[in-house]
Amino acid sequence: MNISILFANEGLTTSVMVRELPDGFFKLMEHPIFSESAKYGDVVELTRTKSDKYEFVRVVESSEYLMEDFVLPLEIAESNKLTSILDKLTNSGGFWQRDFGGWLVVFYLANKYDPRRDIKSIYNHTQQKEMCETRTLFCARCYV
Q: What is residue 93's three-state secondary structure?
């Protein structure tokens, strides 16, 4: 089911797909955009508010997935090469989601396929430029 979750400590409310578990906790079936408190695959405790919304309390069980995000130009985000990498990730038990066109978030298991190098190689091959010294996600000069 799709619900809105308030992350009060982050000043954030976001919609996210969850699965309610028999013990009353919820498993996140996608990544809550912009949240730093929880991620895809986490089992979380939520409280229901008077307005029938949910508020994040805590992570009960952390996901085993490692997470990496990329801001990619649309030519890469919509490319066949990236689709092939994401298919390989999915087939190895990983998960990915793309938001706002070029914001890609990948979740992979440590002992399975790690897509980071392949994604960066597409970017580097297409852009033919080096990352700047800041190496930050939202750097306008390097995008990765």
A: coil
Is pTM beyond 0.70? Reply is yes
Q: Half-sphere exposure of 96 toward its Cβ, with a 13 Å CA cutoff?
A: 25
Question: How far from 40 is each of 43, 61, 62, 63, CA to CA, in Å?
Answer: 9, 11, 9, 7
DSSP state, 52?
S
CATH code of domain 66-127: 3.30.1370
User: What are the tens digits of pLDDT across the range 71-90?
Assistant: 988 888 889 999 999 999 99
Give kind and range of the element (H or E) at residue 86.
helix 80-91
Q: Could you state, in order of their start, the residue ranges of all structural domains in the chain?
A: 2-61, 66-127
pLDDT in tens, 89-125: 999 999 999 988 888 999 999 899 999 989 888 866 5
